[in-house]
Amino acid sequence: MSDVYRLYGAELSPYSVKVRSYLRYKGLPHRWIVRGAATQGEFQAYAKLPLIPLLVTPENEAMQDSTPLIEELERRHPEPALQPGDAPRAFLSALIEEYADEWGNKAMFHYRWSFEADRLSAAWRIAGSILGPDAAQSDLQQAAAGIVQRMVPRLALVGSHAGTKDLIESSFRRQLEIAEAHLASRPFLFGKRPALADLGFAAQLYELSTDPTPQALMQHFPGVLAYVARMNAPRAEGGFEGWETLSPTLTPLLREEVARYYLPWAHANAIAVKNDSRSFEIDLGGRRYSQAPQKYHVKSLAVIRAKAAAALAAAPGLADVLKDAGCYDLLTVPPG
Question: How large is the average pLDDT for residues 120-132?
Fold first, then answer.
């Protein structure tokens, strides 16, 4: 047994950074262990899936999948609270976190592997992480080339291609505009302390801020960059804010991003999986979007819909908030 948590991850993995921010916020003693050649044996001894992050508890219990992992830790370590105490705000926080994990990740993947400068930067950093600081330049170059060859074809799997480029990039820019306005008067999305939403939202933005092309765009949004830096080691600066003061600048994120892009896409993906389709197309934000369906997202949509049902049962007033944001039907009517 160890007396600390062991987090196996990578700096270029948004979900690893997300869990690391949580551990730092909670003040839980932990070691950040970069998954690479030197630690692969340790990783394989605990991992059920070849995916990061992997968290090993002091009792040698292995956890994977960032959201349920964080939710389980929150049950064990409820202070300081990660979520607002009432059902409506707690659900809205979970919804934004889901949006960031599943839709916000598209922008991160798109920018990182679509543009030459970005993919070279990412590939060299990943190669260095895997091979270690003493690796020869020739080995790094060979590894980086292999990473580019492996990752670029995966763009289509997340729906990034010539036909969706403008849609993904305009969605990202609008996300930045909304966040800049909202964060102008508060340090975190739900007030003066981080919530579950912040962990997912900031993790994707952190990765984007390290890649050349989106980094250049983000220089025009200093409030967002300051927020990303704050979320690297977040601290409570006060309490959660009431929805009355959050709504004017946070509802646009729900209406213009979650309801306009994420939920319609998630529904279309679920229908395509159900029909065993090889691909699907849908109009999102006035543009055509297409990709191959992905089964994992069907599961995550079902989870957020179940959370919506529980929150609506506990607080019927949430329905008005979701209807105002255009999210209600997409969260309560089954896909198809």
Answer: 96
pLDDT digits (tens, 9 = 90+) for 240-270: 999 999 999 999 999 999 999 999 999 999 9
Domains and CATH numbers, the chain: 5-76 (3.40.30.10), 87-111+158-332 (no CATH)
Strands 30-34 and 5-9: parallel
> What does the pLDDT look like over 97-108, one tens digit per residue?
999 999 999 999
Per-residue tokens: 80: 């300081």
Cβ neighbours of residue 258 closer than 8 Å, sequence gap 6 or more = 95, 96, 99, 103, 325, 327
Question: Of 80, 74, 20, 35, nearest to 203 (Cα)?
Answer: 20
Phi, psi values for residue 217, rounded to 5°: -70, -40
Instruction: State the pTM of this model.
Output: 0.97
Residue range 15-27, pLDDT digits in tens:
999 999 999 999 9
